[in-house]
Design a protein that fits this description.
Blueprint (H helix, E strand, L loop, with lengths): L1 H13 L9 E6 L3 H13 L3 E7 L5 H8 L3 E5 L7 H11 L4 E6 L3 H12 L4 E4 L11 H16 L12 E3 L5 E3 L10 E6 L3 H9 L11 E5 L3 H15 L3 E3 L11 E3 L5 E5 L5 E5 L11 H12 L3 E5 L8 H9 L3 E5 L9 H7 L5 E3 L1 H12 L5
Parallel strand pairs: 1-2, 1-3, 3-4, 4-5, 8-9, 8-14, 9-11, 10-11, 14-15, 15-16
Antiparallel strand pairs: 6-7, 12-13
Helix pairs in contact: 3-4, 5-8, 7-8, 7-12, 9-10, 10-11
């Protein structure tokens, strides 16, 4: 009897409470035995995650996705039989609710394929570290993998907030007030983005191709160096505006778009002609490049002439920089929850009371156009 009672007790302890959140189910699609083994092991070890299955190439993935109904799919780019770019639309057709993270090696070709995958419906990407940085078994890679899986899985929850209201619900449910617009015509546009940023950037900038010829645009996007060069090429392709990684000592030119090089800070240096400064200072709040450093330096050089935008991303990078811009009289706009892959960075700015507008990239682009043309809002 005592033994039976102990078994019942153990069974009850092993059974999660009814209100416990359902684990995030992850499907791994990876041809490398070592990397697939590491991904499976990390998923199985992490509380809140559950391995839904594993496929060794893109051809196997759609049927397995339809059968297992994963929340998140880790999809390798380069695989035999069928690569990740070919498999992506088939996976999304088989399981439309799944969020796909492209897992990409740090090469120019992989970077270009990753951005193509993002434009076709992938939620975000994960860059495999180089062997010199610990390879795919590095703790940093594991932590980034887990964080991104959890972030994109949560992003399936959508907001019903509308653009243009006088107030918003902040991340904690409190009312976050929108600031009145400063009507100083912007002389510089700065943008910060992270998880989900590449698509948000192209959606924001493409409609502005005719409005940005008056001002330089500086962007900090959290990503490795190979990817920032490829992202600059993509932005130039979709906007028709010159876009490149910023270079140390480079003078700003209106109508040009400058991206912070991956893993390096980009700030503005004052002078008769403001110039870009690139440095390798330690990460700020775990980020290099840092949105905060870019925004703070822009506020110091351009004052009220700064128009800043904070797009989708994890964490709160950009909030202290947004505060510096607002204190100088500039404007800050943020992406809304409904259109963000991860509503972290824009939510932090909104909750701090620093935003004058919130909305999806296309609506923010219209607000930016009006501000750049000096129209009243």
């Amino acid at each position: 009897m005592a033994s039976a009672l102990r078994r019942v007790s153990a069974d009850r302890a092993a059974t999660p409470p009814e209100d416990a959140p359902r684990p995030i189910r992850v499907l791994v699609v990876e041809d490398s035995h070592l990397i697939a083994w590491l991904l499976r092991r990390w998923i199985e070890e992490e509380p809140g995650l559950e391995l839904a299955g594993a496929a060794k190439n893109g051809e196997e993935a759609p049927a397995l996705a339809a059968k297992t109904r994963p929340d998140v799919v880790l999809l390798d780019i380069e695989m035999p039989v069928m690569d990740g770019l070919q498999a992506l639309p088939l996976i999304l057709d088989a399981c439309p609710s799944a969020r796909v993270l492209m897992v990409s090696a740090l090469t120019q070709r992989n970077a270009q394929m990753t951005f193509e995958a993002l434009s076709r419906g992938a939620a975000d990407y994960l860059a495999k570290p180089e062997p010199a940085n610990g390879g795919s078994s590095s703790p940093r890679f594991r932590d980034e993998l887990v964080a991104k899986i959890k972030a994109v899985a949560q992003s399936t929850v959508r907001s019903s907030q509308r653009f243009g209201d006088a107030s918003r619900l902040g991340p904690d449910g409190s009312i976050a007030q929108l600031r009145p617009f400063s009507m100083v015509v912007p002389r510089l546009v700065t943008i910060g983005s992270s998880t989900g940023g590449p698509n948000a950037l192209t959606n924001l900038l493409t409609p502005l191709r005719n409005a940005l010829h008056r001002v330089p645009v500086l962007i900090t996007q959290h990503m490795p160096s190979v990817f920032t060069a490829a992202l600059a090429e993509r932005i130039q392709e979709v906007t028709g505006l010159p876009a490149k990684e910023g270079e140390d000592g480079e003078a700003l030119r209106p109508g040009h778009i400058y991206l912070a090089p991956g893993e390096r800070h980009m700030v503005l240096a004052p002078g008769d002609k403001p110039t870009i400064s690139i440095n390798d200072a330690p990460p700020l709040n775990f980020h290099r490049p840092s949105v905060d450093l870019l925004f703070e330096s822009a506020a110091g050089v351009y004052g009220a002439g700064v128009l800043a935008v904070v797009l989708t991303g994890m964490g709160s990078d950009g909030t202290s920089g947004a505060k510096a811009i607002v204190e100088k009289g500039g404007n800050v706009l943020v992406q809304d929850k409904c259109s963000s892959v991860v509503w972290g960075m824009p939510a932090a700015v909104l909750e701090a009371g620093l935003a004058s507008a919130e909305g999806p990239p296309l609506r923010l682009a219209e607000t930016m156009r009006m501000l750049l043309q000096g129209e009243r809002l």
